[in-house]
Amino acid sequence: MSTENRQPSSHELTALQWELLHELRHNSSRAVMLHQMIADRLGLNATDHKCLDYLNRSGPVTAGQLAELTGLTTGAITNVIDRLEQAGYVIRDKDPNDRRRVVVKPAPAATGHMSPLFESLFQSTLALVSRYSEQDARLIVDFLQQCNAIALEEMNKLKEQRP
């Protein structure tokens, strides 16, 4: 039996690895709280705010595509889109490539409400990122991509388990 694919148990972690796990949890909690505060300023809940973020980055998508991007169910996404549309943050429009389909896109006026809330964070993050070498940045990007893949995998497991 090969040991290279074996998962370490928690008692095998080094002090630094435990510190990394602690900081990941701390970062996750801080991010949730920060985005809740931003969502409050926008008059949204945190889920709707983050779905709007996906839309701002992806451009126009169908509800099904947004569900895939976010990992949420199509039913949940329909409710999110309804709330975002009612609040004036998104527009439903005919797909220019297939008039039978509807796409959701950010409302142009909504971007002006969000951008100022992120300017300071963006500038601070730019300053932080610039401190790392290309090699370090590649390692960090790989680590974050793996974390994102794990999070999506866990979301999919939760969806399958249905309460």
TrEMBL record:
Pfam families: MarR
GO molecular function: DNA binding; DNA-binding transcription factor activity
Domain HTH marR-type: 17-149
UniProt KW keywords: DNA-binding
InterPro entries linked to this entry: ArsR-like_HTH, HTH_MarR-typ, MarR/SlyA-like
One GO-annotated biological process of the protein: response to stress
Protein known as: HTH marR-type domain-containing protein
Native organism: Paenibacillus solanacearum
High-level lineage: Bacteria, Bacillati, Bacillota, Bacilli, Bacillales
